[in-house]
Amino acid sequence: MIKRILLISFALSSYSIYAQEADDLLFSQDRQNQGLDQRWELTPETRGRTFTISPYKPVYILPFRYVNKPNELPASLSEPNVSTEHKDYDNLEIKFQISFKTKVVQGLFFGKGDLWVAFTQTANWQAYNGDLSRPFRELNYEPELLFNYPLNLSWNRLKFKMIGFGFNHQSNGQSLPESRSWNRFTMHLGMEYDRWTFFVRPWLRLREKANADDNPQITEYVGKGEFNAVYANWGHVFTLNFRTNFRFNEHHKGYTEFTWSYPIKNHLKAFLAISNGYGDSMIDYNWNQTNIGIGISLMEWL
């Protein structure tokens, strides 16, 4: 199955390379030069209006996603959140993500800070599993409130572009025993170095009552922060996302995801995603698995 997926990915990428027109390449070059200034409206030239929908996290669909070890009997470290009904999930499923943000207040603190509202939804769909009536295995909802402030600092060729903080809620909307949710206070720093863009985002989980915690010790599995590196060149966009619990010993846990995209036509891009670790979705917060998916994307981190 993995070999088939890799062969399909190679064929798709080969087609996109040879089918790419000159105007698409110029479009990709213009887009990669926009960077954080354009995405977050950091300069007077890029500043837009409030209540305008704009991209946030990647938007994609993976029609063919191989999961090496589906979580067929989810078990939280909280006793009421332990499933007792085994589900015979397929290894092959569909995954998609939509994500957007809108600025609700601008010009805070010396006329530069902005307040944003963002929303991301991710779906894992057992679309090929006719025996289980093709259910959505997991749906995750992630609303956020973000404050962002532009920076004009540099160290050699490394430019510090923005800094901020936010409040984040993430849940799967399920009832017991498969309910999973948590709240976080997040911080973020955005930087650029030539064709590279870097995001650093640590977080602190907001404490919950012990008897109301759906997923105890989630930060020991999912991590206490993440690091994103994005490289864009001639239409190619490579990203590496790394989450860690900052225990760099035998107790280290986290999540690593690599993605690659290449334009097919304008905003439509071939998309490959490979990941390993804990917390691919909320129901899998303490479940380690490897995933390989191919499909298309409409929006990247940049």
Automatic annotation (TrEMBL):
Q: What class of enzyme is it?
A: hydrolase
Key word Metal-binding present: yes
> InterPro entries of this UniProt entry?
PLipase_A1, PLipase_A1_sf
Q: What is its main location?
A: membrane
From the Swiss-Prot or TrEMBL record, state where the protein is found. Answer: Cell outer membrane
Signal sequence segment: 1-19
Q: Which reaction does it catalyse?
A: a 1,2-diacyl-sn-glycero-3-phosphocholine + H2O = a 1-acyl-sn-glycero-3-phosphocholine + a fatty acid + H(+); a 1,2-diacyl-sn-glycero-3-phosphocholine + H2O = a 2-acyl-sn-glycero-3-phosphocholine + a fatty acid + H(+)
BP terms from Gene Ontology = lipid catabolic process
Has keyword Transcription?
Answer: no
Q: In the UniProt entry, which residues are flagged as the active site?
A: 169 (proton acceptor), 171 (nucleophile)
Segments passing through the bilayer? none
Q: How does the annotation summarize its subunit structure?
A: Homodimer; dimerization is reversible, and the dimeric form is the active one.
Protein name listed in UniProt? Phosphatidylcholine 1-acylhydrolase
- Per the UniProt record, the source organism is Myroides albus
